[in-house]
Amino acid sequence: MPLLKNKQHDHDPLWHVQVVLAMLIALQLFLPKHFNFLPQYVLPGLEFICLVLLQIVTPKKAVFNSSLRRVVVLVLIVLVAIANATSLQFLLQMLFEAKRIDAVSLLVSAFTIYVTNVVVFGMLYWEIDGGGPGSRHDNMRDENDFLFPQQQNKETKWIPTFIDYIYVSVTNAMAFSPTDTMPLSRRAKVLMTLQAFLALLTIAVIAARAVNTL
Asked: What count of Cα atoms within 13 Å lies in the side-chain half-sphere of residue 36?
């Protein structure tokens, strides 16, 4: 029986990003109001606008270099990151006042913050590696920030997509360390270290404290 081969993409499908962001926006709407530093629907609304703009400003070709698209993506990442960091701060403050009735709220909030953390860093990895989508198709291997197992085969030109970076983010958030994909640049190592620390803080401190209030 022949072995299954990895399908090579000639482009990075944008709808992958949009689906993940839409799910994240929906998840944030379930976050209790007191964990938002802005009115509840302001941030999801801004994220939705950026999500739509991403569709408009992303060139419809595999190899491209668009400064406007890069600005839109970075603004979206900054918005989500600020909201998540603020929610984490508010949640940490609530831990000192948590009661039995607060347990479910704390668990839901911790889960939302954890998932948001995964998506934010997945988008960061997707955006910085090799100059971002589009530029990655036309750069040299030594310009990459990450080394995927498929890229170790010098005879093929394998290009990672957004799903690959989400996978890197998920495994780093769960294992608190790189798994099969290695960070090459210093900025990638710093980001993965920061993500692992935030994930550990969310799981070990917040979730554990919330369970103890049950």
From this structure: 15
DSSP state of 204: I
- Which contacts qualify for 103-108: CB closer than 8 Å, 24 or more apart? 103/210, 103/211, 103/213, 103/214, 105/32, 106/206, 106/209, 106/210, 106/213, 107/207, 107/210, 107/211, 108/30, 108/31, 108/32
Using an 8 Å Cβ cutoff, are 70 and 173 in contact? no
CA dihedral 10, 15, 19, 22 (to 10 degrees): 140
Alpha carbon distance 121, 191 (integer Å): 8
Q: Could you report how far apart the first and last alpha carbons of the chain are, in Å?
A: 52
The DSSP string of 112-159 is HHHHHHHHHHHHHHHHHGGGSTTGGGGS-GGG-SEE-GGGG-TTS---
Look at residue 17 in the predicted model and tell me its pLDDT: 87
**Model pLDDT for residues 83-141, shown as the tens digit of each residue:** 788 777 777 777 766 555 566 777 777 888 888 899 999 999 998 888 888 777 776 55
**CB 91 within 8 Å of CB 109:** yes
Contact present, 76 and 123 (Cβ < 8 Å): yes
- With both helix axes pointing from N to C terminus, report the angle between 162-175 and 103-128 in degrees, rounded to the nearest 10: 130
